[in-house]
Fold this protein.
Amino acid sequence: MEITPLEKWIAGRLADTTRQITNEQIESYKVQKLRETIQWARTRSPIYKQRFAGLTEKELVHPRDLGRFPFTTADELRQNPMRFLCVSQSEVERVVTLQTSATTGDPKRIYFTEEDQLATIDFFRVGMSTLAGPGERVLILLPGERPGSVGDLLARALDRPGAVGIAHGPVRDAGQTLEVMERKRIDALVGIPTHVLSLARLGNGKAAPRSVLLSTDNAPDAIRDELRRLWGCEVYDHYGMTEMGFGGGVECRAHFGYHMRELDLYFEIVDPQTGEPVEEGRLGEIVFTTLNRRAMPLIRYRTGDLSRFLPERCPCGTVLKSLERVKGRVGGQIRLATGRELCMADLDEALFPVEGLLDFSAVLSRAGKQDLLHLEVYVKDDHGERTGKAVRCALQTVPAIRTACEEEKLNFTFDIRANGAVPSRGTAKRTIVEEWVNG
């Protein structure tokens, strides 16, 4: 099996292409870059200058020494993003404003220089080479209308090896997007998991791409399996967020987990409660530090995502670490009246196998000791009682729901929307919305 192209890319950046790189080389590079990042941030960023009082880059001898430095949180970015800025505003090439449906208060603003964006393009160029080669056409179903947006950077990255990147934007009219796929003979596409599923199901498997990259939200196994069944395509998963510079890690052909952007980002896995590092192979919160960012370096940024480094070596043979696919969030588990927990991933794996289901939203409310779970279910065709029965049966396969129903502490209701439309929620992650009722 072919080794991930990220290994050769990293070897080239380490100026060592004559032999296989080692973990020791990578770790040595990370120490050097962590020291440079700390020095850059504490001398140029008002917030890091204040927070690192008494700490300097001299504290770093080994990457684990980074644990002496405090975390950075999303709330801090929202409160005063300008205090993280390390360059003059004239050097800022792109500002991204992040306001998700789950966020209240001020949005986060992330700043990039041209150099920062070129680094992302280089990562995308290498990561996308697994999906598309020279001359192949890639439809990008992510925001791409503005220069420096994720879709624009992907299109620019694909142009470098001679592929053709087509920035289409998120799916708003599935029929129109399917027509574009067929007319332009798309070989691969990049998109939001539920949007891509809608294309496959509404198109009855037509206009099938050879490969698909799912991004921006967790990709349930049920969606990946359905795309393979309908399109017969290879399905890859990407992990990243705007704070990382959009790109963080991507699967290779072994589909063993993400191989990370190791020379641009340093990753830790910590206990979400204590903040202490966990043993390799144990689940925890992903924390990252940028290693080459000029405009807005982020040091020990808490992502809220849950994963673990896999102790086994990837079957592709690379020396690079493998991060297990992210499937959950810190605080993403909702405690039901029974004491058992429910999360969006539980609903995803149960409901997406339902024939013709395109997407759904979930709201959990509580009055006294009684929970009510209400779903808006979007389907390709409404088959009346048959569709309702399939949804009802699927919900009963979720242990937390089945137990709560048996104990008469939960009722669930659902409305079925059968117009074939894909709900528009931008790139916000899907989550169970809580609406607690007093009484």
Notes: The domain at 131-239 is CATH 3.40.50.980 (Rossmann fold). The first helix runs from residue 5 to 13. The chain is about 30% helix and 25% strand.
